[in-house]
Amino acid sequence: MIVPLTDAQLKAIRNSCPRSQAEIDQDLAIVRHWLDKQPHLPKPSEKFIKQILFSLKYRTEKVKLVIDNFYTVKETFPQIYGDLDPTTDVFRKHVESVYMFPLPKLTPDLNRVLCYRMATTDAKAFCPDNQLKRNEMMWNLLFDEDELTLGNVWIFDLTNMDTMAQWAHFNMNFMKKVLKISLDAKPVRIKKVHFVNISQMAETTLNFIKNFFPQKFRDRIIFNAVSENLQDYYPIDMLPYEWGGKAGTMAELNQRLHEELIKRKNWFVEMERMKANSSKRIGQSKTVDQSILGVEGNFKRLNFD
């Protein structure tokens, strides 16, 4: 599904945030010591902690916050993080309705690209919770398989998004949840967000939504009139056929991801148990604080680097 990193790529990624082995061990010990005092949290693997440390530039206090949020949102949103079975009829229907896949190769500047496109114009085929569920499963799979990357690029192809009924799903509550889960509860750095093949209605809607985002995020949003403009940013061989590339059709890439999710079915079922238990949380209310998770309130806390 994805092309493994070369030694040269891995070296370049590590050199972007150099850290001695002694310093990494010290940071790992700090996070492990903190986790030992958090009875409400599961105990992640050493590999997982090291990846988070790197992704968050070894800022241990930020790492603690993200780990806590990462496991707490799973408890808070069972409709997204529960029933992670990619073989159900409901899941298969969403796979048929929405193309969602990573590009096989990293960008030249060593970012992973995640792509999205409606496969139908039927507004009823889009379910926000199922969209987030698949997205979270894709991201977790990639975070486990990619040894390291520098960040994510999102590409949204709006070819089939041309009715108000479709855009009604993308209300502010949904958008805030997407951004907060992606940026406050996951160790991810969003480098660019492309919207391609944009209708006039879509552009008007997106320009309105952009006003609610921090300037730093707005500066990373790129409107591409046609998909061929993506070739100005990324090599042709890493793009799907529909965007003038050589990496296969969107349907094929979408199906490859689905097959990988099915292979990992037992892994995802096990992941369902890796979540917070707020009844054991020490020093805070046993009721999950939505403002801490960032689902309520404004966008001031979002981090993009």
From TrEMBL:
The lineage of its organism: Eukaryota, Metazoa, Ecdysozoa, Arthropoda, Hexapoda. PROSITE patterns: CRAL_TRIO. This is Alpha-tocopherol transfer protein-like. InterPro entries: CRAL-TRIO_dom, CRAL-TRIO_dom_sf, CRAL/TRIO_N_dom_sf. One of its GO terms (molecular function) is phosphatidylinositol bisphosphate binding. GO terms for cellular component: membrane. It comes from the Eukaryota. Residues 87-251 form the CRAL-TRIO domain. SMART domains: SEC14. It comes from Sipha flava.
